[in-house]
């Protein structure tokens, strides 16, 4: 199990169910106005499943500790506990400890939590527990029981990978519905397999919905992750149409998570959830103590020269450079490559298959350079990043925290270097106010 995957799921440390028999009656009419064609019945297993080694919760021994919540304390299905046991974790993170009693009781939740707090595992555990402990008498292809919507392809792929790892003993069928990936392959899987959990980005999911490839009227569990980023990326109209195709909010359970909580997100969350409980988890420190933060006062024309010099110096391993605009990242990556550095680009304008290959390469080698936008950066969870560079001071102070959080992960230390030019210096006051600390600026090292 890769360490990075474990840290994403839990930041602090049988037998699979058979598919249901073919239906005896036509499915219910969907909540959207389109006419649903009669779907195919659930496919029968072609061969008996391999019997899982015997395991029960008694093998998962965790001492009671004051102030900590054990996963045992939630009365989870043994198949879920088995997955947690394999990952090597015993105690819930704060967001998990606060949210799971609410969501496991079937209530809606609005959670404010930063990336890296363990919220993915929090909502996945609830989704899997519900799917394993209750089941409809009939199942059809094209009708998922749980839907998780994320703003970026990278984040959706991570959530799906985490779900498969956490639920590897559950027998639940998880699939991703993403733009930029093989359309026909996704269409065939949706129309030929009984899918339990769909993890999707809005664009491709809406396309399949319009083409009557997928139907959402049987969704029992809806998760909306990073709602604030959905708003920033202009996905709200698509998201409204998707949610409109699911059962009414009092007939499904909804979990909504957002790193920030602007007014628009508050209004949307109230319309999408039913009598929700609110949970807010602040990071232990706004800017982690494991990151050495430096702010260099520099002329805009000197940024490339200083950046290249630092990247070529000793002690710089895996590095991520953030810029505010797609065109800035594209041009910067090209300039760095002309200066003899091997810089890779990660932004929304890069084709998905190339973005996936770029991330895999970034994870594989120790001394690699990634130039990214904030949107793409939300999907980067890679251990061993030694340096993060802010080529531009971010427009939103919270994006600064997200950026520097890419280093100093998993108990290691890292360095975050922010370039502040003559056009951006005014933004330091807002950042100081957000961080609650005086920012000390300095000149770049002469060497």
What is the fold's blueprint, element by element?
Blueprint: H1 3-9, H2 78-87, H3 94-103, E1 109-113, H4 119-133, E2 146-149, H5 153-166, E3 174-177, H6 183-192, E4 197-200, H7 202-210, E5 221-224, H8 227-232, H9 236-244, E6 253-258, H10 263-272, E7 277-281, E8 291-297, H11 303-311, E9 318-322, H12 326-338, E10 343-346, H13 352-364, E11 369-372, H14 374-377, E12 385-390, H15 397-404, E13 414-420, H16 427-435, E14 441-442
Parallel strand pairs: 1-6, 1-7, 2-4, 2-5, 3-4, 5-6, 8-13, 8-14, 9-11, 9-12, 10-11, 12-13
Helix pairs in contact: 1-5, 3-4, 4-5, 7-9
Could you explain the architecture of this structure?
- The protein is an alpha/beta fold and 447 residues long.
- It folds into two domains: 3-24 and 40-47 and 54-281, P-loop containing nucleotide triphosphate hydrolases (Rossmann fold, 3-Layer(aba) Sandwich), CATH 3.40.50; 291-442, Rossmann fold (3-Layer(aba) Sandwich), CATH 3.40.50.300.
- Helices cover 35% and strands 15% of the residues.
- The chain is built from 16 helices and 14 strands.
- The chain has helices at 3-9, 78-87, 94-103, 119-133, 153-166, 183-192, 202-210, 227-232, 236-244, 263-272, 303-311, 326-338, 352-364, 374-377, 397-404, 427-435, and strands at residues 109-113, 146-149, 174-177, 197-200, 221-224, 253-258, 277-281, 291-297, 318-322, 343-346, 369-372, 385-390, 414-420, 441-442.
- The strands form two sheets. Strands 3-4-2-5-6-1-7 form a seven-stranded parallel beta sheet, sandwiched between helices.
- α13 links the parallel β10 (343-346) and β11 (369-372).
- α1 crosses α5 (153-166) and α4 (119-133) packs across α5.
- The chain is globular and about 70 Å long.
- Residues 14-35 and 43-50 have low confidence and may be disordered.
